[in-house]
Amino acid sequence: MGSILENIFAQIFTANHFKLRYYNKKKIGEIDFIIQQGKSVIPVEIKSGNDFKNHKALNNLLEIKEWWA
Hints:
This protein is of the alpha+beta class. Helix content is about 35%, strand content about 30%. It is built from three helices and three strands, in the order H-E-E-E-H-H. It has helices at about 1-15, 55-60, 65-69; strands at about 20-25, 30-35, 40-45. Strands 1-2-3 form a three-stranded antiparallel sheet.
């Protein structure tokens, strides 16, 4: 189900003229999408199933101050 939702969101983002980027670093993890809106960079994690509250890679990314500076 997660891969289906990821594809749906990819279509929605693309239809709204967002350039899709993927992020994967060994120490952080995988972020499904990185989109940019103006000067803002927005990480997006798509989750489904029982572990929808588990977003370790997103938490790891948000802990890095330099990412947002």
